[in-house]
Design a protein that fits this description.
3-stranded mixed sheet, Tetracycline Repressor, domain 2, MgtE N-terminal fold, homodimer, CBS-domain, about 475 residues
């Protein structure tokens, strides 16, 4: 018996606290040994033990566990998730995993679990169901919840309407603090599960201000809401979720009222949803810059291949075009084989410089540090940086080339080519994303392939064209 | 007069509302024309107009404006920022810009402005001051604030201790809801500016639970806190900020208590700080993957060059090593110049495949979707994906090579080399970040240069070695 197997002694894991302590590592990631315990219990068909193991965890950790199990084990474990945990696990799951878990649940059980959730989370789960299952689940829900879900799903994806929850705490401006608190105590059931601001509305249900709950609590009971309220930042119901995230981030909002075309309060968005969106948008940017599709956590091998092969094929095509200049100048290459050795360096360093500029530009566009207000200045700065880096690197590479080949003209050739390529990289790396953004495209998605093509082509062409002029 | 100049008619921008509407575009980014108005007023030396223009903006927008002004205009504008706005502007500024703004402010004015802030924000501003200025500012502050700032600054950077604010709302478990609310009304001044949870503490000041403010509000006045409290997720004061962000994200926290080694409550962290950290960590990942240092928004040209040149120089060196195989096989290249044309394709597509795997792996490590619990499975999956992509791309490239050169052996050579390189890319792309993480290094920082070197080297070496075996 190894010392590690010793810590798996099940008799020591008989209380929920002991299980939770064991399940989470210091950094709050799931302990692989805990995952093993779950798999052992599933293999043994020990449902009571599974329930015990799952019961000790926070719903977010149960969702995490699902991601570490193969789909076969997931099917065995899901029935043992405690019913009151299940509802909160569902919104936390990745799409593909959620699909599988939803398939494993009977509509009635699902409808019951969903009633624990706020309308935004209900809708997030229901939208993943098949047509038939969706109907069955909606039919099994109370009328009020069903209507709320259907309204939410009627807004376009990735807009504020989809993100918001319809439950809000709103109060007329003439109410006092005392009245508002009394109202909340007596209308407990109509309130959102958690809320951070009370929206103050006029008779037309327009949000005219907000009172943070902590401010309500410390104000005198006689104070009118209109006296203690602060201005609100309203979110239009059709605003793109990326814009919503930007507004939350900029103004450090915890929650914000969502309003329809007529300015009427229709729901609220809270910051916990925004954190997810920020992560999602960042993930999209990183993957787009690396030219890889998002296959999802639980993707099959074929799913991953499909997310990568198109970009690699495209790269194969653009690279073929880029090397065509070598094919054209093949006689020159045959005469001076050193060119075949040096060209890839010019092309690689140029590609690297282009990627640098591109990443900085995409990031600056996403955080609105680069806008039409300063685009000219930033482009000018990049061009200067490109020239300086080009000259400095050309000196290094020229010197190394001379040291190795004792040929001044060859050294000058590669030096000039490197300056040209790094200049092209700077220009392409900054202009491509700006122009793509201006025509309404995602600057992270298509710029890398453009810039890579540009720097590869220039890497070969500049070396060979300059060589043809001064070397041969 | 152009139509655009017409919208700048100053007489139409005479109320704060009109100015704010004009300053912000639909997407809440700053209107370049508003920036122009500010510059015009600075040029005219019209301080009253500057004050009027600035007064209409939210502090976050004033901070944004600072980023769009050159340092010369910033110096002219800063004195006109309304004093009550100034404090809130400071924490929002980028480091370099904040340095400049702080230099422009006399210590007394700064000390006064700082008193508007919570302790975490005070510390964030004070830590940027020079030694002398820091002393002067701290000396001008009340004893209580000074002690709080000094304690915060005694924690290491990028830990929970630095992030937290020391102001918390804590209450003993035997208090009733009514008692708690009455206490808050009468101790208004000691409370954090905004808070979302009341921490329930035992006599040793350990947090035994939390009550969301919205839940306090809707509970009966007679209810005991111990009856309505929920479990809390505690944050250790020395926890790295990246871990703190992970915990907030995973458990969707709005605020969390920070505890010292003895488990005593010492402060709280709120989600608005976490949003900044998530963005910062994501920014670091994107820039690290693109091998570029973070020069900051307002960097000089020389500052940017310094953030990029080291990586480019390193790339120049590794690429020189990678092409050394070409130099060794130069006779072969001279005989079959087609190799010089085809090698860069094999190397570029391999590099692209490596970048794809790397970006996915770095992302999965950051979100803990890839841990020791599933590392073997994920590595196995990547290897299979690499083989499949390699074979499919090799078929395409082999066919194209044959179509162009009518040489079966050449087609087989590049096909095999491409399979080898994409396999190497997959292996390197997944193993490099996992191994770096395991030895405690940031997987995003050094893996790209390793993987690029590997795929460039393999691109040349595989083509030439296979060519030497079967072609020549």
């Amino acid at each position: 018996m190894t010392p590690q197997a010793d810590t798996l002694d099940e008799s020591r894991l008989d209380s929920p606290e002991a299980i939770e302590d064991f399940a989470l590592q210091e950094d709050y990631a799931l302990n692989p040994e805990y995952v093993e315990l779950v798999i052992d219990a599933a293999d043994a068909g020990d449902g009571m033990r599974l329930r015990e193991l799952l019961d000790a965890l926070h719903p977010a950790d149960v969702a995490d566990l699902m991601g570490f199990l193969s789909s076969q084990y997931r099917a065995q474990v899901v029935p043992w998730i405690p019913p009151d945990t299940l509802a909160e696990v569902l919104p936390e799951l990745d799409d593909r995993i959620r699909d599988q878990v939803l398939d494993l649940l009977p509509p009635d059980a699902l409808a019951e679990a969903l009633q624990e959730l706020d309308s935004d989370e209900q809708a997030a789960v229901v939208e993943d169901l098949d047509e038939d299952e969706r109907k069955a689940v909606l039919a099994a829900m109370p009328e009020v919840d069903r209507a709320a879900i259907e309204t939410t799903l009627s807004y376009p994806e990735e807009t504020a309407g989809r993100l918001m929850q319809r439950e809000v705490m709103a109060a007329p401006q003439f109410w006092t603090v005392g009245q508002t608190i009394d109202h909340m105590r007596s209308h407990n059931d109509d309130l959102p599960e958690l809320f951070f601001d009370i929206y103050v509305v006029d008779p037309a249900f327009k949000a005219v201000g907000a009172v943070a709950v902590s401010n309500l609590l410390r104000s005198k009971r006689e104070a009118k809401l209109s006296e203690i309220m602060e201005p609100v930042t309203e979110i239009a119901v059709d605003l793109d979720q990326e814009e919503v995230a930007y507004i939350f981030e900029k103004y450090r909002l915890i929650s914000a009222p969502v309003v329809d075309d007529g300015g009427r309060l229709v729901g609220q968005i809270t910051v916990d949803d925004i954190v997810n969106i920020i992560q999602e948008e960042n993930r999209e940017d990183i993957l787009a810059l690396a030219q890889v599709g998002d296959a999802g956590r639980d993707a099959s091998i074929w799913g991953i291949v499909k997310s990568r092969l198109p970009w690699l094929s495209l790269n194969l095509v653009t690279e073929t075009i880029a090397v065509s200049s070598i094919a054209i100048f093949q006689d020159e290459v045959a005469k001076v084989v050193a060119l075949a050795v040096l060209m890839p360096i010019v092309s690689s360093v140029g590609g690297n410089a282009g990627t640098q500029t591109l990443a900085v530009a995409v990031r600056a566009l996403a955080s609105r540090e680069l806008t039409s207000a300063n685009a000219k200045r930033i482009v000018g700065r990049e061009v200067c940086v490109g020239l300086m880096n080009g000259v400095l690197l050309a000196l290094m590479m020229g010197a190394a080339t001379f040291a190795f080949y004792h040929n001044v003209r060859l050294a000058i050739t590669v030096g000039l080519a490197l300056i040209a390529n790094i200049f092209a990289a700077a220009l392409g790396g900054i202009l491509a994303p700006i122009l793509l953004e201006r025509i309404g495209r995602d600057p992270a998605v298509s710029s890398p392939i453009l810039v890579t093509f540009l720097t590869d082509f220039m890497g070969f062409f500049a070396v060979l064209a300059i060589a043809a002029l001064i070397l041969l």
